[in-house]
Design brief:
homodimer, DNA-binding, 10 helices, flat
Chain lengths: 221, 221
Amino acid sequence: MPHPSAEARPPLNRDQVLVAAIALADKDGIGSLTMRKLGEELGVEAMSLYNHVANKIDLLDGMIDRVFGEIDLPGDEPDWQTAMRRRAVSARETMSHHPWAIGLMESRSTPGPVTLRHHDAVIGTLRKAGFSIAMATHAFSVLDSYIYGFAMQEASLSFRSAEDSAIATQMIMARFPADQYPHLTEMAVEHILKPGYDHSNEFLFGLNLILTGLEKTRHTL
Amino acid sequence: MPHPSAEARPPLNRDQVLVAAIALADKDGIGSLTMRKLGEELGVEAMSLYNHVANKIDLLDGMIDRVFGEIDLPGDEPDWQTAMRRRAVSARETMSHHPWAIGLMESRSTPGPVTLRHHDAVIGTLRKAGFSIAMATHAFSVLDSYIYGFAMQEASLSFRSAEDSAIATQMIMARFPADQYPHLTEMAVEHILKPGYDHSNEFLFGLNLILTGLEKTRHTL
DNA sequence: ACCTGAACACCGTTCAAGT
DNA sequence: ACCTGAACACCGTTCAAGT
């Protein structure tokens, strides 16, 4: 009897492995997600995991597809901008819960079914709003680039500023010696580091700018 | 005499290490960049590298800062949009040469001097064009999110489509079974996979949309 | 000052063996 | 059908030792 509940516990399945892997990556970062640690988390040796995932790439593919499932699909809102805004806000929220996923979501070479369904729903909303195929492609490209790019910047910012913003300020200022970077310093000191500033407001500014711009091209081409 | 040119060759320096590391990552991907392989490339044992970089994180920081140096700074163009467009196009071009760098450029916790100078120049151009500090922050955020997000998508696309687009088509279509993803299929078959389509055109569409949107807010706030 | 050999504590993955 | 132990070919990094 290796450990108490060894034969009491039913066998693992793929979904349990994926859920545990996501939880581990959320907690300790993707760098700490190793087959050995994941096995330990599940009360199993690392080698057992290969009964449920083909290899680590397959594990990551499965994790990403599961994360995509957390993003709201654009719904049946009458206004296409409202639908796109809700989906974009949800995507950003999801990625803020799983920052390790951001770089991976768009770079999997084999997107899963949930991912494909998500993209299909976004394109469908655009087409129903009257965008031509060419314009829908443009819209899809600019929206997704913006959403993922913003999430990437936000993840690195929250990583940079760590827990204490006062300490972060000290550290940042120490790296801006003697007005070598006057505009960056001005922006930091006079705006970003001021109490009222909230970086998350930047997201809606850019999103609305893009949606407004797209509305104007909706019936062209 | 370990190898022929051992005492003929002058000692390594940090820049040679960074240049070789970038070349290796360009050639084989970031996953193949190991201290041992990098040492081999330089005719040296892996342990010698620690005389020139503190550790692998420091190596990556140095590589990224050097890549930032390849991006054109926004110049003294009279039109701020022209300056921003040139810088954005250059950034995208640079990242297409160094796809491994994309996920890392915005996520380094200690940006180097070249990186800071780049950001300072971008903000300076916006401020000189009349953007308030708050509006320049908005503009900086939306532009950078878009540029990095687009580069990320482009890198994964070129990775996905591998060398032969016909094979890629087969593979993609095999994953769209029985009209489960009608809009995605339509976009692929009727537009993206057609001979005339060039994904790189998407970049300027989104960039111009954002620049036009920003121009309208240039004198607000 | 720069480089090396040996060692340590890790990785992902295979495979034969167990139940 | 699922899990394990032992093994293989790797990692980054430290450290004492060489020149």
